[in-house]
Amino acid sequence: xxxxxxxxxxxxxxxxxxxxxxxxxxxxxxxxxxxxxxxxxxxxxxxxxxxxxxxxxxxxxxxxxxxxxxxxxxxxxxxxxxxxxxxxxxxxxxxxxxxxxxxxxxxxxxxxxxxxxxxxxxxxxxxxxxxxxxxxxxxxxxxxxxxxxxxxxxxxxxxxxxxxxxxxxxxxxxxxxxxxxxxxxxxxxxxxxxxxxxxxxxxxxxxxxxxxxxxxxxxxxxxxxxxxxxxxxxxxxxxxxxxxxxxxxxxxxxxxxxxxxxxxxxxxxxxxxxxxxxxxxxxxxxxxxxxxxxxxxxxxxxxxxxxxxxxxxxxxxxxxxxxxxxxxxxxxxxxxxxxxxxxxxxxxxxxxxxxxxxxxxxxxxxxxxxxxxxxxxxxxxxxxxxxxxxxxxxxxxxxxxxxxxxxxxxxxxxxxxxxxxxxxxxxxxxxxxxxxxxxxxxxxxxxxxxxxxxxxxxxxxxxxxxxxxxxxxxxxxxxxxxxxxxxxxxxxxxxxxxxxxxxxxxxxxxxxxxxxxxxxxxxxxxxxxxxxxxxxxxxxxxxxxxxxxxxxxxxxxxxxxxxxxxxxxxxxxxxxx
Length: 577
Prior knowledge:
It is a single chain. By secondary structure, the protein is of the alpha/beta class. Helix content is 20%, strand content 30%. The protein contains 12 helices and 34 strands. The strands form 9 sheets. Strands 17, 18, 19, 20, 21, 22, 23, 24, 25, 26 and 27 form an 11-stranded mixed sheet that branches. Strands 7, 8, 9, 10, 11, 12, 13, 14 and 15 form a 9-stranded mixed sheet that branches. Strand 14 (227-230) and strand 15 form a beta hairpin.
């Protein structure tokens, strides 16, 4: 018999949340107790263990060479460069320890995780990817720099969550094959596209929002199959080229002017309430080719999932962050190509795993760190199959009877993700700080870590922003020898050779902001991974689905106080050009 809907009170935020009958079915299937945190607090807790973009210089603890890493010196984590970590010069089993039934699980696990070496950057073994040193969560790539979460890409720089494309700079959430994109978000199969969002199959265009199959279009929205359009109006080829030339998009001032006009222009046109395509029974945003997936964001080929984001081909999984090819997984961070992987952090190509971090190509592990091609291990200690199964059951029971309690009195029994206060990262280094911002005093009051020594250089600039030539056509190779200063945060940054070549080829002016401020600006342009209940704002006559004001209600990523005009799918389609 199916359990009835239950209302629970979140241990963390003290707000009520609902567990549906299908949720209970999932928890029973994977044999875990129902959560005690609400979905939002689970998301925040999970992401407090994920640092993607804060990089540091350290020394590899094995070969002693300098290495770029996501772990600051204050983290106390043992760090190996990727060559050493993937090599055969160390044995993770030598860190094995017996389980102590007189102490809470999470307390012991933290001790183990600090002893076992961690990958400096969580990338592949260096064979699948080439020349991609400054990248994190990366595989099957070539010639990439400052790219975070990516695979099957080439010649990409300063981007986040990209796949299957090449020659892209300053992009976010890019899927499918793209070539020569600059400052684009959620665009697909496009070529020579700049400053655009939610557009597909577009060529030689700029400042587009939700356009498809367009060529030579500038500052447009809601267009399909158009050419030589400016602000949604048709022009001749000659007229269009004159308009485009008048904006001088090779200059910083010209782009600034166009960006302001574009932002004002697209506010006049309705927005689709969510972007869900070729999908059935789905709730969320940026969902494609999926079915029966709820509260999911930026997912593709998702089936029977809930509270999943940034994932490709997840199935029968809950509470997943950034992964692909998953089935029956729960409360994971990037546990790609895995089945029944529970409470994992960067554990790939694995099966029947619980509470593992950085364990790969393994099966039947519990509470392990850094293992590869292993079976039946607990706390990095090898057991027989029979010993393993008996001991795991005893540990699960002990976790319920002797739970970990954090500094705020929150109880962590079996079935909870790792406590945020035990994270290796300062809260301000993590994705949690982007999605759930906290000030330093707020984080510390919740007993969360804080990183005061974020690696950042200032005051070393040799060329002030106001002295950079306005047009890329006036900038010579000497820019490569200069140190620049961000106009927002004053952080110093440099232009690297491949970046300069790209700007020249695409007629893009030298950026006046550092990567971090550019990335932050893109995140602010992207709707949050959160839903609000609203009603369609359309009151136009002539729409087949309503007379007078449309009464359709929906869940949308546009908060009620935002200025955009938000339409249901039918009203939106009736307005597309």
